[in-house]
Amino acid sequence: MNIQIKKDDLLRVTLKEIPSTGYVWRFQNPFENKLGIYSVQLDDFTEQAQDPNGENPVGAAGKRTIVLRADQIGQEEFELVLVRSWEF
């Protein structure tokens, strides 16, 4: 997918994640941003409350939110992959 954004614009990517399965979203190769076109502003996991009392059970599903900022003009690629954290 190609996305065009302007310098200093933010790109928010939100993906479903269930860490109790062992799989989490990560950058395929975090060092591929050789030109420094973008920077990671946020990489956060939030559990979604599934209990009527508002409590999050252990291993609950949630969402991974990643926010990138376009720091320079240019073209860059990034790839997010669903991997087991101990194999990354």
From the alpha-carbon coordinates, what is the Rg to the nearest angstrom? Answer: 15 Å
Order of helices and strands: EEEEE
Chain-averaged pLDDT:
85
Please state the overall shape, judged from the principal axes of the Cα atoms.
Answer: elongated
- Characterize the biggest β-sheet: 3 strands, antiparallel
* Count of helical regions: 0
Helix content: under 10%
Hey, roughly how much beta strand do the residues contain? 35-45%
Order of strands across the main sheet: 1-4-3
Brief account:
By secondary structure, the chain is mainly beta.
Topology, please?
Blueprint lengths: L9 E8 L5 E5 L10 E10 L14 E9 L9 E5 L4
Antiparallel strand pairs: 1-4, 2-5, 3-4
How is this structure best described in words?
This protein has no helices and five strands. With 88 residues, it is an all-beta fold. It starts with 9 loop residues before the first strand and ends with a strand. 2% of the residues are buried. It has strands at residues 10-17, 23-27, 38-47, 62-70, 80-84. It is elongated, with a radius of gyration of 15 Å. The strands form two sheets. Strands 1-4-3 form a three-stranded antiparallel beta sheet, with no helix packed on it. Helix content is 0%, strand content 42%.
Distinctive features:
88 residues, mainly beta, three-stranded antiparallel β-sheet, elongated
